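Slide 14.
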Amino acid sequence: MCQPTPPLVKNPPSALKTLHDNSLKNNNDTLKFDDTTTSATAVATLLLARKTLARGTLFACLSLLLLITGMSITFPHMQSRRDELGCDSLCYGTMTSVRSALSLVGTAVVGRLSDKNGSFLARTLGSLGRGKNSIGGEGDMNNGSASGRRACLYLGTIASLIGLTIAASMNSLHGLWLSMIPGALLQHNFEVYKALLSEYHNNIEQLEIQAKDSSGEENENGDSKQSPASNRSGSVGKLGMSVGISFMIGPMISAVASPTFQFASYFAIVCTLASVVFVYHLPLPVSSAHTHHEKTSHETKPTQQKKTEFTLINMLKLKTPKSRAAMFCLVIRLNMALAFHIFNTVWPASLKTRFNFGPTDHARFMSFIGVTYAFSQGYLAKRLVQMWGKDGKTFVIMACCAVLGAGRYIAYYTESLIVIYATFLFIINALGTMNTVITADTGAIAPSNEVGGLFGILEASQSAAGMGGPLPWG
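Slide 15: predicted structure.
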């Protein structure tokens, strides 16, 4: 006889239920462990990016300090050298316009090249570097990494060396013109450094978002205590402060030692060579280093890259909020540069006519400007941004424009040297604050792979103003 089939058990036995619950618990524990590991890795990468920002900012400031110090020691001799070689106001205005025309081309090209890590220049000249940047301290992710920014920094340094060599060896009007060409065309290290600092900050902001998404809450180690705007202003301010200090050191050495122009040129060559050391050890952003080392030796199929949004044609169309913001910065930069070049064409001759300014007087005046500019970039600008906040930066820019316009009028027509120094105290502080705010906002507009091109366009607009301003006024 067939035995009856036992009835189906609706509920599992107690042992099976316990085993099922333990399995679910183990799976949840595994998921929590994976989330914790991912969060720890994200925080570690974020901390590395912050250390890279600090190290990169320091090396960028030191390299720029040496480069500009060497050049600024020759500045007090420029007016007397032009007079000696017979270069009058018309000659100086023409030279400034030609320099601006070369810079118009150079800044746009160098800006785009600095964004391209896959170009031939980046893979050859840009691979010469050894900036330490790796998680856990193992290896050297920047050793041999292709970098468009580093390649352009080397290119600008070489151009400076060629110009200084020509200036020291050819004491003629012809040599004066030739020495101007290499630097005007290729030496745009300041703009490249600004793009590099913006890339550091863009990288940190992306990693902060990833760290928050991984942990599900704000991490104390990853979050910045200050706003992104003030952080960017602080980094740009340090870079501008190094420029201001260099403008103080160079003319001060020239005023105290009173060297000849040839000695000043040789000193500038030594300083320029020393700046290359910091370029060599400059760390790349964490994202750039990881991207380079994730690529294998065999090439993948090329994909169609997204067209850049920050070209002059696209910006003029004003289709997107970012293009409108970039166009606003462009218009501000253009008008600032036009006002500067028009004023600077007649300013040196005016000082000589009213106060018989010589090289020593120019050295003292430029040292004063350097100290004031360093103060505005390193201290004042960041505090003003923090005090007024994101919405108040527009009023800061408007106030700076008013100070620049009124100050230049007073400085040109006064007969008192004390009034000139007092007026330029306000002029330089306003100029430094305005430059810091605009540069920080520009770096926040474009992504890392386009920020160099955007800075190049803005600098090219200033060069265009240099073409249209000095020549007719000279």
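Speaker note: The longest helix spans residues 14-72.
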